[in-house]
Design goal:
The protein has 249 residues and is an alpha/beta fold. Helix content is 33%, strand content 24%. The chain contains nine helices and ten strands. The structure holds adenosine-5'-triphosphate and magnesium ion. Magnesium ion (MG) binds next to helix 1.
């Protein structure tokens, strides 16, 4: 469902500072694939996700989503299909708006007709119900400004929004890096459930090799702007965390 064909990205081309962030990347991703991405600092992982999200554009190559060429679509045109959860909890939601207003904005991405509608009791009940499934008590805070919640709480809510949307692709760039172990666990379990239930295609960048081992049905290893390993479920099953750590040497 997602085809990436010969994508390259160079920052500061033809200067002393030239950085080849992605070099001729081609990969084909099936619907429902949950790809875990590992690789050293600066190996191109976030650039790759930014390219899929439409916050960066390739110099060469193209990106096809269900046969639609989205290569030059900016992020807001892709947000209907693509949801992302960032490492930085301040990104991704509007801090000055309330939780429920953020959910309304997310809903508007797929249904512009409701643009002038007020928040209905029905919508509020639905949002509360979904949020309560997190088990973090956040359903009682839907009229609080998003900015008053902690980073982990905001990230968890972003995921709930993803679950209520029509998104097909979920991008997770070190989503648990700033979270306590309990919230990190809740977030990853929720992500896994969403991916399975809604047959989402997902990318999950992590530096935690245990998590890389534990989550996903496909494992990508980035090195110097290239995908140098692409393991399927069977190959992933027989590799150990210590073998994985040797890739970084
Ligand atoms: N917007 C940008 N402008 C200039 N250089 C950039 C930009 N984004 C990334 N780079 C450079 O591209 C290279 C790859 O960066 P990227 O953020 O994709 O790495 P990463 O694999 O996500 O690393 P990390 O594990 O540290 O998050 C780095 O050398 C980085 O400095
Ligand atoms: Mg990164």
């Amino acid at each position: 469902m997602l085809e990436i064909n010969h994508v390259s990205k160079t920052f500061f081309p033809s200067t002393e500072r030239e950085i080849k962030s992605l070099i001729d990347i081609s990969i084909s991703i099936k619907q429902g694939d949950f790809c875990t991405i590992v690789g050293g600092n600066g190996s191109g992982k976030s650039t790759f996700l930014n390219m899929i999200a439409g916050t960066l554009f390739p110099d060469q190559g193209n990106i096809m989503l269900d046969s639609l060429n989205i290569t030059s679509f900016p992020d807001f045109q892709r947000s209907k299909w693509i949801v992302r959860v960032f490492q930085d909890p301040l990104l991704g939601t509007a801090g000055e708006l309330t939780v429920i207003e953020n959910f309304r904005l997310a809903a508007l991405r797929t249904d512009k007709r409701s643009l002038f509608k007020r928040i209905s009791q029905n919508f509020e009940a639905q949002v509360k119900d979904e949020i309560s499934k997190l088990g973090l008590g956040l359903e009682n805070k839907i009229y609080n400004p998003m900015g008053n919640l902690s980073g982990g709480q905001r990230q968890a809510l972003t995921l709930v929004m993803a679950g209520m949307s029509e998104a097909k692709i979920l991008l997770l760039d070190e989503p648990t890096a700033a979270l306590d172990p309990k919230t990190a666990y809740i977030l990853m379990e929720l992500a896994q459930k969403l991916i399975k239930d809604k047959k989402l295609t997902a990318f999950f960048i992590t530096h935690d090799l245990k998590k890389a081992f534990q989550y996903g049905n496909r494992l990508l290893f980035f090195q110097s702007g290239k995908i140098v390993k692409d393991f399927n479920q069977e190959e992933k099953n027989i590799i150990s965390v210590s073998e994985m750590s040797e890739w970084f040497e």
